[in-house]
Design a protein that fits this description.
Layout lengths: L4 H35 L1 H23 L5 H15 L13 H23 L4 H21 L2 H5 L6
Helix pairs in contact: 1-2, 2-3, 2-5, 3-4, 4-5
């Protein structure tokens, strides 16, 4: 066995185990957040609204750091598309125009920002932090709130 093979095997195995634990931690966090949203639907709506506004307010600040205005405009438009889901929150028809538009906006937003980070080298931790705060926070807020419609009373609509 060559000298570095055992080291490579151990580090690769531990990397996969850490990915497994990371996925498990994220799943537990999403489950906890969905339980909280189920118990407090009005607070969940406020959390989604504040998250959306904070991310939209951060977009102009990124323009000062050298990020292209075109990318920021597309990203802000995607977040405005997510805002259309707040009109009938927590009732979201998955086949409605606003829901399908929001799904398309998620794909477009990812495409735009993956392109940016492909063109500009950035360490992976900074990319992950940016994606978590600026791209994933608002859609995850709405994703967690999907359980709310099933628990609502039929006459509440």
């Amino acid at each position: 066995m060559p000298t570095g093979t055992l080291f490579w095997l151990i580090s690769t195995l531990s990397g996969y185990v850490s990915l497994l634990f990371s996925a498990l931690s994220i799943a537990c966090g999403l489950y906890l957040a969905s339980e909280w949203a189920e118990d407090n639907p009005s607070h969940a709506r406020k959390a989604c609204t504040y998250t959306l506004y904070l991310v939209l307010l951060a977009h102009p600040l990124l323009a000062f750091s050298g990020v292209g205005v075109g990318r920021l405009a597309v990203s802000a438009a995607c977040h405005c598309c997510y805002g259309t889901l707040l009109k009938r929150f927590p009732f979201v028809n998955p086949l409605s125009l606003s829901a399908l538009g929001s799904l398309a906006a998620v794909v477009v937003c990812h495409y735009v920002w993956f392109g940016f980070f492909y063109e500009n080298y950035t360490p992976i931790f900074q990319v992950t932090g940016f994606f978590l705060l600026m791209i994933w926070s608002t859609p995850l807020c709405f994703f967690v709130s999907l359980c709310l419609e099933s628990d609502a009373m039929p006459l509440a609509r």
